[in-house]
């Protein structure tokens, strides 16, 4: 079924913005092999230039998230000015306490006050960067955890985490926020200090109103009903942001909507149902992906288009009919209303929608024909290509 977009759906789609991660433009891979791509950025400036291509062709990605120290530069005013020239802004600042030998046994949770100080200071430095870039969100994901039962005192680590987060939170100003991301395992295999939404929720509510939960779609055990978590966090007013990606097995970081488009639809339905796409929503949408074998810029374009397409389909759900069927106990009727929307083809309507906004009807084809790839391949010679982790 090919479908038209309603005026209300168009209003929501006009608001849709998906931050792209700077690290998606660097080389990445598995522990077995990193395949490099010609033209890969060599510094944060080139990553931002590539990210700006995604926005130029889709109108969907006005901000680029950065990761510190991967995107360390001398002058963040200059980086912000460069981003603005490219037509984008700098978004979420991601902290990183997972690649320094000192943090082998944790950072914000560490037994040793000296190491904890170093981890807290890193976050304070990230907030200095946010002050310069005008970023709203500090995103914290911790690798802290342990590999063996008895290795560490689980309870003490939660208490120290709270103290560390309190100091970081106290340094925020204006409309700045702290978002705490959870992940059930990896790199720690026995326990992780922020393994689930409940722990993140408990920690952020102990801080204050400007602390929220970040939900990375790849950070759950197989079979987890992620849309239920989305519903609950929105209901509790603590869903701060998404890291979108898709997974078949673990934290695969594949293109969002590639592995399970229906799951993305169900998640976005709950976002809309819970007000997460209303005007002034507190929910920030972001990609957290790697492009190990495919080209990175088109990989990112495909990703934001997937989110747009599933949002358009989720906006088609006939809420009145759905509610009537639910109230009547019409199990199959309710499910049919839901599936009708999921199975609608919104691609022609979205192509028209883009053209009406001066955007290419087919952003993938437009990028392929733009000559940008050929240009960066020719220009970016010498230097060291950026990689996930540097
Ligand atoms: C951890 C994670 C977190 C990091 C990113 C690179 O698995 O999802 O968001 O910052 O990967
Ligand atoms: Mn993530
Ligand atoms: Mn992850």
Quick structural summary:
This protein is of the alpha/beta class and 390 residues long. Helix content is 43%, strand content 12%.
Structure description:
- The protein has helices at 7-15, 44-58, 76-85, 113-133, 154-170, 197-205, 226-235, 261-273, 296-314, 319-327, 331-342, 347-356, 363-368, 372-379; strands spanning 18-21, 63-67, 89-94, 137-141, 145-146, 177-181, 191-192, 211-216, 239-244, 284-287.
- With 390 residues, the chain is an alpha/beta fold.
- The chain has a single domain (16-314), classed as TIM Barrel (Alpha-Beta Barrel).
- The strands form two sheets. It has an eight-stranded parallel barrel, surrounded by six helices. It has a two-stranded antiparallel ribbon with strand order 5-7.
- The model has no long low-confidence stretch (mean pLDDT 97).
- Its EC number is 5.3.1.5.
- Keywords: Isomerase, Manganese, Metal-binding.
- One of its GO terms (molecular function) is metal ion binding.
- This is Xylose isomerase.
Write the layout of secondary structure elements.
Blueprint lengths: L6 H9 L2 E4 L22 H15 L4 E5 L8 H10 L3 E6 L18 H21 L3 E5 L3 E2 L7 H17 L6 E5 L9 E2 L4 H9 L5 E6 L9 H10 L3 E6 L16 H13 L10 E4 L8 H19 L4 H9 L3 H12 L4 H10 L6 H6 L3 H8 L11
Parallel strand pairs: 1-2, 1-10, 2-3, 3-4, 4-6, 6-8, 8-9, 9-10
Antiparallel strand pairs: 5-7
